[in-house]
Amino acid sequence: MKSQVFMQSWLCKSAVILLATIGTTLTAGPAKFDGEFVDKKFLNGQGVFQFSVHQSGNALDIAFDAAYSDGHGATPDATGAGKVNGNTAQFTWKDSYGNTVTGTISLAGDDIVVSMKAVHVADPSCLAFYRQNMKLKRIGKSGTLSPSHIRARRHTICNVGGGP
Predict the structure, then answer these.
(1) Does a structural domain hold residue 163?
(2) What is the domain extent for residue 15?
């Protein structure tokens, strides 16, 4: 009798552990990068950098926009694609000035850290915006990714005009 009760108890506990493990395995997917991110004090307070990510499985659609707060200089924007690999993602795009950029995104709690490198420079006036280890704060869920949408939002954040 004791061995039968022990066996039932052991089977019940094993079943619970098995179901919990299966549930975790089935729901575990790629890291979640979806969202709208910003650094309103970019370039030591001289600029604003916005970054938008829409994720579908391991695929990312990315848009970005950057500008000096006083409206001078380059105001690059771009859309591109990326791929999630664990807790990081790699991406590439060609910006509105013709520069080709590659980069990585890492999760940092609810925020992200973005590192970028220009691999083809068509207009060096944008290079100030392509940096390493930029921490961007999440400001919302993923939205529309068009550069025109981001330019309109840029105007509300830093009161600057459009691109080239």
Answers:
(1) no
(2) 1-29
